[in-house]
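Internal QA ticket QA-208
Title: Verify multi-chain structure generation after dependency bump
Assignee: T.L.

Test input:
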Amino acid sequence: MSLRHALLGLLAEKPASGYDLLKRFETSLAMVWPAQQSQIYGELAKLNEGGLIEITGTGARNRREYGITDAGRAELREWLTEPGLDLAFRSAALLRVFFLWTLTREEGTAYLERFARENRERLATLEAIRDNVEWTGDPAQIAGWLILEYGIRGSRTAEEWARWATEQLTEHLP
Amino acid sequence: MSLRHALLGLLAEKPASGYDLLKRFETSLAMVWPAQQSQIYGELAKLNEGGLIEITGTGARNRREYGITDAGRAELREWLTEPGLDLAFRSAALLRVFFLWTLTREEGTAYLERFARENRERLATLEAIRDNVEWTGDPAQIAGWLILEYGIRGSRTAEEWARWATEQLTEHLP
DNA sequence: ACCAGACATTCCAACATTGACAGGTCAGTC
DNA sequence: GACTGACCTGTCAATGTTGGAATGTCTGGT
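Actual output:
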């Protein structure tokens, strides 16, 4: 039930259309919670039905702008202050590492090197964003900046780990 | 389509029953790819139908042991050597950080401190596992060891980030 | 006046995942 | 001899997620 709350959170900042929200997902949010367009529009309809958001205006090209309601704000707040903290994550890229031993040593290290390279590239991309965005003191923007920094540190750690893992594989695999 | 490959990978090491595989998921694999029991049994049935695995023996209590077939090995290999590398991941815990600004500063920092604490605990758990497991030179075990190290480094990075983020929130949030 | 490309929404089939329920067997211990 | 806890499998409904197709509108540039 995270997507609905992600949408509520975005709308808590300011009203937006499905298309606007989609753009936000493609840029900043994609890093921690990817979502497709079809899912976003569907969820917006449900949230509207449930009274957590409402239509606050319409525009050209069939545009419909949604705003969060008081009920929506309450729901968002409840979600954010829930006691449980879900550290779980899924990574297909790491899952594959588990089975690298079924390949030859060369194939295995090639995979890890690719892993390192991709993380290095992502690191560069994120750092470029950090250094080029104009940081106002806006609270919502600060939160985005924290996540961005998480991505930067995470990518760096992943890259270093992949280099280390390549060495280990070279040393320990027959 | 990662679960089916995870099962193939585990069976590539040695034959196992659904129950055995479930245990492997609960312990090592849970870190990178959680799966429920219902999903595992269902997927095993499909893999068996598709000829990627086969029943290699039965035991007490209705136990059925599956082994990977040549077709299964080929499929696993193909998956592992696919060109695309999917770095995407989902984290509900990080998603919440995006919306911390809607809470008071105290509530926000409390969340991040909890985040730091949980990662510290996970770090301790993983280090304990690393230091207590008897590491033979077994290839499959080495792969598990690499992942474990990833978890350790990732937890450490996450904890440090959360401490840093707590400071930032304290400084920059009104 | 035309066109490309961004804007904007809707619908759908297929697949993945969760959470719960339901059933039964065997080994060791009190 | 009864009980507990680990072993072992199966199924279902509901929900979440993906990927694609279809449709139409407005804006800016040539």
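Spot checks passed. DSSP finds seven helices and three strands in chain B.
Status: verified.
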